[in-house]
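Supplementary Methods S3. Complex input for the thiamine diphosphate-bound model.
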Amino acid sequence: MTGAIADPSGPTVESTEVADLTPERLRDAYRWMVLSRTVDERCLSLQRQGRIGFYAPLAGQEAAQVGTALALKPEDWIFPAYREVAVALVRGTPLGRVFDQMIGNAFDTSKGRQMPNHFAWRDQHYVSASSPIGTQITQAVGAAMAAQRRRDGIVTVTFFGDGATSSNDFHAGLNLAGVFQTPTVFVCQNNQWAISLPREQQTRSATLAEKGSAYGIPGVVVDGNNLRAVYTAVSEARRRAVSGGGPTLIEALVYRFGPHSTSDDPRRYRTDQQVAAAKERDPIALLRAELIESGDWDAARDAQLLERLRAEVATAFEASEAAPPVDPASLFDDVFLTPTPRLEEERREFAEREPMGGPRP
Ligand SMILES: Cc1ncc(C[n+]2csc(CCOP(=O)(O)OP(=O)(O)O)c2C)c(N)n1
Ligand SMILES: [Mg+2]
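Predicted complex, serialized as structure tokens:
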């Protein structure tokens, strides 16, 4: 699989063949990728219809996310940024839970207190999404230090973008990880943009992976559109980390097909032609072609899969949308074990208020 690594001059780590990607596992990966794209398209459309408030699209980054998630164990801990819905799905998050959080309904486990798309699920070892750029990186290293001391035999995995490699926390986190040889896998999804700032204007470094060498951390550049390549690189990084070999920085080369978020218009800083050229290496199309060529998939199955997933996504969303909203008065809960008199007073005032949108009927 060494051929799958994009830049042989950059990496300091050799890649070897990973044996356990059977046709069945590849098909499984493909289904996760198609599900993620289906959720992605749906969320963009729902936000445009005013049915969810915010969304950060992942289209183009499915192989990087699914390939990483499949190479991990359930006991590992994820420290995401804000674009990793595919990781949450592969970790076993039911669609309904994703949509409950997007809407902030009564079933949302975050109780409507987080931005849409900012999930946190303890049972999936998925730590709350970080919108402040890079903060999850130092958290992942701290948690890895704890795991190291407890001899848990797990890794922490943190996702961040190309732009985040210019953040303070990236450097502090990598330095600490290098010094203490923590079991951390740093997954930088280099999608070529930090909102409107292109990759070339972010740093003079030839690769982002090479930033690891300043901290004594091996860096690997991997073709993030290639599911096998990502899976291979992460599997090796994980194996090295749990056997005491320390952290790895993986740079997955991808391209963000959609807007930065639902608040952004990418046509103001890039051309449709650039996007079209990037889409020629669509990670889903690449894996589909590989599966079809090897006889492990066909057009009829593909159409069936898409139809089934679209229906599943639509049904799950409708159920979440039909659920009652979160009770606004619950915002006073979980602040203090014993609420202060002032908080109780605010709670009473809040209960007596006129609800937003006019007087009670
Ligand atoms: C500390 C901080 N500074 C600035 C921002 C505004 N901001 C939000 S996303 C973003 C770009 C991040 O780019 P990148 O790390 O490449 O991730 P991507 O969005 O491309 O996945 C910026 C600057 C922020 N959220 N936090
Ligand atoms: Mg980026």
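Residues 327-361 form one domain. The chain has two domains: 2-326, 327-361.
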